[in-house]
Amino acid sequence: EDSLERRKPMPKKRLGAEQTVTKLRQVEVLQSQGKSIAAACKEAGLTEQSYYRYRKEYGGLNVEQARKLKQLELENGRLKKLVADLSLEKQVLKDIAEGNL
Q1: Kindly report the CA angle at 73 between 70 and 56, in degrees rounded to 5?
Q2: How far apart are CA 48 and CA 59, in angstroms?
Q3: pLDDT higher for 1 or 85?
Q4: What is the distance in angstroms between the CA of the first residue and the CA of the last residue of the chain?
Q5: pTM (2 d.p.)
Q6: pLDDT at position 66, please?
Q7: Is 15 exposed, middle or buried (0-12, 13-18, 19+ CB in 10 A)?
Q8: Does 3 have pLDDT greater than 60?
Q9: What is the pLDDT of residues 14-35, one digit of tens each?
Q10: Which residues of 24-49 are buried (b: 16+ CB within 10 A; e: fewer)?
């Protein structure tokens, strides 16, 4: 039957910072054992594209540093949103004070 064609693809699961660094280290170990990047990535459960992207972002970090980086990125995003909200609020109050609303 064509039940294989109807099967929905599994949603892609994003790795956490710690898992990403662990996967990068796993690929490095496999390469040191003589495996090609393609074979090492496959064995580690990564695509080569993801490997290179993760290596660019996390290369040289240990697990704790990667965790801290992710926390700082989340905090930075939260603070940027807060600044945008406060700027908008300030502009609305300014417009009210000037009688523009």
Answers
A1: 65
A2: 15
A3: 85
A4: 65
A5: 0.57
A6: 82
A7: middle
A8: no
A9: 778 888 889 999 999 999 999 9
A10: bebbeebeeeebeeeebbeebebeee
Q: Judging by beta carbons within 10 Å of its beta carbon (0-12, 13-18, 19+), is residue 2 exposed, middle or buried?
A: exposed
- C-alpha to C-alpha distance for 27 and 43, rounded to whole angstroms: 8
SS (H, E, C) the chain: CCHHHHCCCCCCCCCCHHHHHHHHHHHHHHHHCCCCHHHHHHHHCCCHHHHHHHHHHHCCCCHHHHHHHHHHHHHHHHHHHHHHHHHHHHHHHHHHHCCCC
